[in-house]
Write a structure and sequence with these properties.
35% helix, 137 residues, alpha/beta
Length: 137
């Protein structure tokens, strides 16, 4: 099974989660500026809310995905105020015909003093355990 991990972050929170996910599944965490070049059975996609939506760069990344190369997307991320980006990611993935697994990982993220220290060590561990559960490990 080929697994890819991509993330988008402005604060570094999602990058920390992506690195934990990637380590847990034996992959490398890469920013969304690096396209998915090889066939991926699973693409773990880390992102967050910015101005109450997913960032346009995340939207454009999903639009550029090749449905012949990506089996399914597994969403993960953190946010200070809002919860899951699942619906936004799924809406974009549906447009290009890529399945989004209904399971996802989300935790609080620090932003401007809110949720100081998050994601914390427990969140990082939970993200890794989540990723292992997805691949059956």
């Amino acid at each position: 099974m080929n697994i890819e991990v991509r993330y988008y972050t402005k604060t570094g929170n999602t990058k920390r989660l992506a690195e934990a996910v990637a380590k847990a599944v034996g992959a490398e965490a890469k920013p969304i500026s690096e396209p998915v070049a090889e066939k991926a059975d699973i693409l773990f996609l880390g992102n967050s809310y910015y101005a109450f939506s997913i960032d346009p760069e995340v939207r454009n990344f999903i639009k550029a995905l090749d449905k012949e190369k990506v089996g399914k997307i597994v969403n993960f991320g953190s946010a200070a105020m809002l919860n899951s980006t699942y619906k936004k990611v799924k809406a974009e993935a549906d447009k290009v015909g890529i399945e989004v697994d209904e399971r996802e990982f989300h935790c609080k993220g620090e932003f401007k003093g809110l949720h100081k220290g998050r994601p914390n060590d427990d969140d990082i561990k939970a993200a890794a355990e989540f990723a292992k559960s997805i691949i059956g490990g």
